[in-house]
């Protein structure tokens, strides 16, 4: 499922240790700290590899995440809002990432713009609880989804560059 380059990228993301959800008050704070450290490392690695492709931030509680992701196609940058909530059963359950503006434009998406990660990503996530975190969702979920879906949506005329 994962090529060697992806394995290398993911191997450089710190693994998380704390098994905690938003219900676990003090433990959740520790889990959030690990999440932020892993995200910072992943973003730094991406920048160093000239592969910067997203920004994320959260609400104060760390339960609602939002930001931007982008994809470069034919030297044009296509940028999208991205959002997700942390499930109450996190990290046993992976977050469902949504790109609301693409809702209804591809079969690989659920209502509300939630991207389809069922067949490939969710079994991988389940085998790696609690070691995987939000940076892994981005690297193994959203990133590959964008690479497959955005060029297809552009070729079908369903996504246009903002300059048009």
UniProtKB/TrEMBL annotation:
Coiled coil regions in record: none
UniProt xrefs under InterPro entries: UBQ-conjugating_enzyme/RWD, Ufc1
UniProt KW keywords: Ubl conjugation pathway
A GO cellular component entry from the record: cytoplasm
Top-level taxonomic group: Eukaryota
Chaperone in keyword set: no
GO molecular function: UFM1 conjugating enzyme activity; UFM1 transferase activity
CDD domains registered for this protein in UniProt: UBCc_UFC1
Entry's Gene Ontology BP terms: protein K69-linked ufmylation; response to endoplasmic reticulum stress; reticulophagy
Pfam families, sorted: UFC1
Active-site residue list: 116 (glycyl thioester intermediate)
Similarity comment: family membership: Belongs to the ubiquitin-conjugating enzyme family. UFC1 subfamily.
Function: E2-like enzyme which specifically catalyzes the second step in ufmylation. Accepts the ubiquitin-like modifier UFM1 from the E1 enzyme UBA5 and forms an intermediate with UFM1 via a thioester linkage. Ufmylation is involved in various processes, such as ribosome recycling, response to DNA damage, interferon response or reticulophagy (also called ER-phagy).
Protein name (Swiss-Prot/TrEMBL): Ubiquitin-fold modifier-conjugating enzyme 1
Source organism: Xenopus laevis
Biological classification of the source: Eukaryota, Metazoa, Chordata, Craniata, Vertebrata
């Amino acid at each position: 499922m994962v090529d060697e380059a992806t394995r290398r990228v993911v191997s450089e993301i710190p693994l998380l240790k704390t098994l905690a959800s938003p219900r676990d008050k003090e433990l959740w704070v520790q889990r959030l700290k690990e999440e932020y450290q892993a995200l910072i490392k992943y973003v730094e690695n991406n920048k160093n590899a000239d592969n910067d492709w997203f920004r994320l931030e959260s609400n104060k509680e760390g339960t609602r995440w939002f930001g931007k992701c982008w994809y470069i196609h034919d030297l044009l940058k296509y940028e999208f809002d991205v959002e997700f909530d942390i499930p109450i059963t996190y990290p046993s359950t992976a977050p469902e990432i949504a790109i609301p503006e693409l809702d209804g434009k591809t079969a690989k998406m659920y209502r509300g713009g939630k991207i389809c990660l069922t067949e490939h990503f969710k079994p991988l996530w389940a085998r790696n609880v609690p070691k995987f975190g939000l940076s892994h969702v981005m690297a193994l979920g959203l990133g590959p989804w964008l690479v497959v879906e955005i060029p297809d949506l552009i070729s079908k005329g369903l996504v246009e560059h903002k300059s048009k």
